[in-house]
Design a protein that fits this description.
alpha+beta; 9 helices; 9 strands; rod-shaped
């Protein structure tokens, strides 16, 4: 009976020792077996592992891709135009043994602090080698790849692989924004004034050319009109002369009719004359035109 009572505690202790010697590794984890703080084995494949109870312990690290966002950082590009930059990085523990030796008991939080410093140094190095226009452009892929490559080389000593780095913000410092906006506004206003001046100059040239062409065209038109009018008058006089040579009385008659038509046009002034005026006596009126018109 006493022996049975002693076997129960011994069995419980044995079971506890047996259970404490077993550990499991998830497919999302890496595991290290430590003995007095030194790494004695590592396990990356998922499954069950064994360790010496009380002497060895297991440390697990995340085997997934992790994220890190840097704090806003002021950088100075080649043109001394200060910028505020922050970045987003994706990283992964690739060598758990090297990672443990580098970070000790600090774990992933300590690694993030170290990686944050590495990224900041890489950002300063790359951004300081290019002008601000390259940083503020839409295509910053080359710059981000350079930052990633520098950070990857530095982080390799930590057992970490930097998979990707992205610049999430590249802005001017708040205290510089207003002055920059004012300078940009002044530049745009100057460009607008230059454009208006050039436009006014071009418009003046167009107006001057148009005015000259108007004068030239008008002068040419008047010249052609005078030539046509002169030819028409000559033809008219020739017709009149021919008509006079054939019938002087008919010529006088047409001259009289033309006079009456011109004096009685619609809208002309009223005609006031005496009843015995030449205007109402055709024969006397014709005689007043001259002996040629009267047929004498």
């Amino acid at each position: 009976m006493m022996r049975a009572q002693l076997l129960i505690p011994v069995g419980v202790i044995a079971l506890g020792v047996a259970l404490s010697s077993v550990y499991t590794v998830d497919e999302r984890e890496k595991a290290l077996v430590l003995q007095f703080g030194e790494v004695v084995s590592s396990r990356t494949a998922p499954g069950i592992g064994f360790k010496i109870p009380l002497v060895q312990n297991v440390v697990k690290y995340d085997d997934r891709i992790l994220a890190l966002s840097t704090q806003p950082l002021e950088v100075t590009p080649l043109d001394d135009r200060r910028l505020v930059v922050d970045a987003f990085a994706r990283w992964r523990i690739v060598d758990a043994v090297k990672f443990r030796e580098a970070v000790g008991d600090g774990g992933e939080n300590f690694a993030k602090n170290r990686l944050d410093g590495i990224l900041n140094n890489a950002i300063r190095e790359v951004m300081g080698s290019v002008p601000s226009t390259a940083v503020l452009s839409d295509d910053r892929t080359a710059l981000m790849n350079q930052i990633r490559d520098i950070a990857r080389r530095e982080a390799n000593a930590l057992g970490i692989d930097v998979i990707d780095v992205r610049l999430t913000r590249t802005d001017l410092p708040e205290q510089n924004l207003q002055s920059t906006y004012d300078r940009m506004r002044a530049e745009r206003q100057r460009e607008a004034a230059d454009e208006r001046a050039r436009g006014g100059e071009a418009a003046q040239r167009v107006r001057a050319t148009a005015d000259r062409q108007v004068v030239e065209l008008t002068s040419e038109a008047r010249k052609q009109a005078e030539i046509v009018r002169g030819k028409a008058d000559a033809e008219r006089n020739a017709i009149y002369a021919e008509a006079y040579g054939k019938d002087a009385s008919f010529f006088a008659f047409t001259r009289a009719l033309q006079f009456y038509a011109d004096s009685l046009k619609p809208g002309s002034s009223s005609l006031v004359t005496e009843p015995d005026s030449l205007y109402f006596d055709y024969d006397r009126f014709v005689k007043s035109l001259g002996p040629e018109a009267a047929g004498n």
